[in-house]
From TrEMBL:
It holds the Pfam family HAD_2. GO terms for biological process: carbohydrate metabolic process; DNA repair; glycolate biosynthetic process. GO terms for molecular function: metal ion binding; phosphoglycolate phosphatase activity. Keywords: Carbohydrate metabolism, Hydrolase, Magnesium, Metal-binding. The gene is gph_1. Pathway: Organic acid metabolism; glycolate biosynthesis; glycolate from 2-phosphoglycolate: step 1/1. It catalyses: 2-phosphoglycolate + H2O = glycolate + phosphate. Its EC number is 3.1.3.18. This is Phosphoglycolate phosphatase. Mg(2+) binds at D12, D14, D175. Its cofactor is Mg(2+). GO terms for cellular component: cytosol. Specifically catalyzes the dephosphorylation of 2-phosphoglycolate. Is involved in the dissimilation of the intracellular 2-phosphoglycolate formed during the DNA repair of 3'-phosphoglycolate ends, a major class of DNA lesions induced by oxidative stress.
Length: 222
């Protein structure tokens, strides 16, 4: 399948650029342990990532995707998670295979790049730095940059405005239903990676414009 070449590409972080689950699962289980709750492990955490820290902590405390913990417990657990994750945001996290190559190719095509994640800036920036890809992005829009996160289109529209392009010239690359919904609502095209998190469901069911198995495949898309 070929797509119209965009002027701007905004790229999701967790499950798209970075396999962040090993660190998120470690932090989640340490946080649970401090409240005498049992560990949930990587397989469950992999299904719970993608809607920001508050959602992940709620899911971990209740052991359910749409669980609502006691408000008091949640209020105590969030700062514990934050402080653990601040110290342990990028110990085992890695770039997915092909990411470096794909970013280099996009830049060679003179496409401007931004990163759009639901992760708070205090975690996003050190991870991008440590993995050596911060300088590839002209703008980083984190989960707390604006009042609303993905699936709201606001972060994507903010990115398009920053680059001075209309949404029809912009593309998002992501891994989850939130990325597809935000892109559709913003009028961006959307390419998804097949290997990401997406709460354990196949992203093809959301009918993105294209699905790639690695960033190296971007070269054959447009
Ligand atoms: O859930 C998060 O904290 C971030 O997830 P995202 O990078 O896939 O938007
Ligand atoms: Mg993601």
């Amino acid at each position: 399948m070929t797509l119209k070449k965009p002027s701007v590409v905004l790229i999701d972080l967790d499950g798209t650029l970075v396999d962040s689950v090993p660190d998120l699962a470690w932090v989640t289980d340490q946080m649970l342990d401090s409240f005498n709750l049992p560990p949930r492990g990587e397989t469950k955490v992999r299904k719970w990532v993608g809607n920001g820290v508050k959602s992940l902590v709620k899911r971990a405390l209740t052991d359910q995707l749409d669980g609502e913990p006691e408000p008091d417990l949640l209020d105590k657990a969030i700062p514990v998670f934050m402080s653990l994750y601040e110290q342990h945001a990028c110990v085992e996290s890695t770039l997915y295979p092909g990411v470096k190559q794909g970013l280099a190719w996009l830049k060679q095509q003179r496409i401007r790049l931004g990163c759009v994640t639901n992760k708070d800036a205090r975690f996003t920036l050190p991870i991008l730095d440590k993995l050596g890809i911060h300088d590839d992005f002209d703008i980083v829009i984190s989960g707390d940059t604006l009042p609303r996160k993905k699936p709201d289109p606001a972060p994507l529209l903010h990115g398009a405005e920053f680059f001075g392009v209309t949404p029809d010239k912009a593309m998002m690359i992501g891994d989850s239903v939130s990325d597809v919904k935000a892109s559709r609502a913003a009028g961006f095209s959307i390419v998804c990676v097949s290997y990401g998190y997406n709460h354990g469901a196949d992203i093809r069911t959301m009918e993105p414009d294209a699905v790639i198995d690695t960033f190296a495949e971007l070269e054959s898309l447009f």
